[in-house]
Amino acid sequence: MPDADTKKVSGRLLVITGFIMLATIMQTLDMTIANVALPYMQSGMSAGQDQITWVLTSYVVASAIGMSLTGYFVDRFGRTRVFVWSIAGFTIASMACGLSQTLPEIVMFRVFQGFAGACLVPLSQATLMDLYPREKFGPALAAWGMGVMLGPIFGPTLGGYLTEILSWRWVFFINLPLGIACTIGMATLLPETKRVHEAKFDMRGFLFLATALTAFQLFLDRGHTLDWFASLEIMIEAGVAAIAFYLFIVHIFTTDKPFLNPALFKDGNYVSGTILGFSVGITLMSTMALLPSMLQSLLGYPIIDTGLLMMPRGIGTMVAMMVAGKVIRTVDPRLLMFTGGSLMGLALWAMSTFDLNVTSSLLGMTGVAQGFGIGLFFTSLSTLSFATLPGPIRTQGTAVSTLIRNIGSSIGISMVSTILAQNSQINHAELSEHINPFNRAIQNAAPHLPIDLGSPAGLRILNGMISKQAAMISYIDVFTLMAIISAVSLPLILILKRPKKQAAPAPEHAVAEI
């Protein structure tokens, strides 16, 4: 009964893929789901603005450090063990975050949560590429990409709903049923890999990299609040990051068994794909970070409506990834990448035309266009970046690629936050220069305005109107910059090479252990 056996194997592989997607969604969801709940945490724990941001910073730093250890953990302990430990640890830490009563407690458990969940995204990607034959990488990575992209997209929506209806603690409690299901499913179904018992840990390389990542993330997170290099703290963090990163690079190219395998950088597709992922990480996540604040603070949408307006982006991504998964074997992935990148750039350019009266339909259309572009781009990027990477270093490759994309996201968010704050002040000052009793336009308009410009109350209202216009112009400046970065990044697609077609391996090559 070969047909029945094949169907049984395929069904089991699909179930494993479902659990891998669920684990990916769970981890990526927590990258953004807590953002909208921060004000509620701040009031509940009587914390200052600078203090409460450690809830996010601690998670990002711990995740970056833990992600760099993925390859070693898999070699030393085996893929399934690392997967199960990561999911279980992430779930336990999530519950501890939800039960925390003080700021130090939640920051400490967010560190555990970030470190435990760091392996999930790169390990999910590497596992799918090990389980599926090469000619099916496209559909498999499309499924994986849904988890990676839908988590950040739907995170603010789900976080806003849970915080508004229940409490901020439920943004962490929501992980319990998902974590239990994933832990049981992976422990039961996922085949274990061979363990490399003689694998040695490069402590020196790890310390160099961990120091560089920690200092650099602190530099990015605190720079815009401390006026960057006007602050001694920022100068120290930048110096430590630069020195530690230099020592790390020198170390990996001069030691026998480095923490990071230099062979990764000999694969042209992998290097080019990682650079593209870095650039798109800058534009994508910075946009995702800006939109909720623009919709709520500037356009006045409630938190739940803000989440609903972010949803079209996720719908576009889902549809595009399903389409890309079906056609990627017959269409050049580079063409899909160029189409997706162009759509993302055009959507950002359209967003640069927004004003304070922008309609919800225009917000939705630009969201669908950007989401569709994201889906086409990332499915093809994942397929091409790892198509020629040798299997033994694939897990390490996915970890490094994800780490660099996340660094790009951190840089993008920090950059746009600084631009937004500085340009808002500059725009306010420039607009205010024209508000004076001698301006003929104001003289003509004053009798028809619903406010009295001669009263303090009227002037406060006018100042608020100027502030909103100044902020809107700043958002437009950021969207324009992101569109330019997207356009400049497109030529990098030409560097990628389409892998040569190979004879399809026997099904047992991919699923013999399943």
Can you describe what's shown?
This protein is 75% helix and 0% strand. With 514 residues, it is mainly α. Among the domains are: 1-201, MFS general substrate transporter like domains (Growth Hormone, Chain: A); 202-258. The longest helix has 39 residues, at 394-432. It starts with a helix and ends with a helix.
Give structural attributes.
Growth Hormone, Chain: A; disordered N terminus; globular; disordered C terminus; about 525 residues; mainly alpha
Instruction: Tell me which CATH architecture of the domain at 1-201 applies here.
Output: Up-down Bundle
Supply the number of helical segments. Answer: 21
* Radius of gyration over all CA atoms, rounded: 24 Å
Distance between the termini: 17 Å
What's the mean pLDDT score? 80
CATH class of the domain at 1-201: Mainly Alpha
The helix/strand class is mainly alpha
Bin the strand percentage: under 5%
Q: Helix coverage percent of residues?
A: over 70%
CATH fold label of the domain at 1-201: Growth Hormone, Chain: A
The residue ranges in which pLDDT falls below 50 over 5 or more consecutive positions are 1-9, 502-514
What profile does the largest beta sheet have?
Answer: none
Shape: globular
> Which homologous superfamily in CATH is the superfamily of the domain at 1-201?
MFS general substrate transporter like domains
Order of helix and strand elements from N to C terminus? HHHHHHHHHHHHHHHHHHHHH
Number of beta-strand segments: 0
